[in-house]
Specification:
Helix content: over 70%
Number of helices: 3
Number of domains: 2
Mean pLDDT: 86
Order of helices and strands: HHH
Amino acid sequence: MGELSVIFAGVPLILFTLFVAPIWLILHYRSKKQVKQGLSEEEFATLQTLAEKAELMSDRIRTLESILDEETPKWRERA
């Protein structure tokens, strides 16, 4: 029975070492390389667009809050 438990313990370790660990290392170092390279032009353009949209949303929220402050002064207390 002792040999059988060693085999069952060793098989997952061997599978991890042969398959999971190399894939894990490759993906890890690939992602580190991408981080060092920075944003691509497409990613930077997307980030700029999202920042502009966030600024527009912020302006709209401020406008809506000012309207609510005028029409219903105690609306913040209900939230």
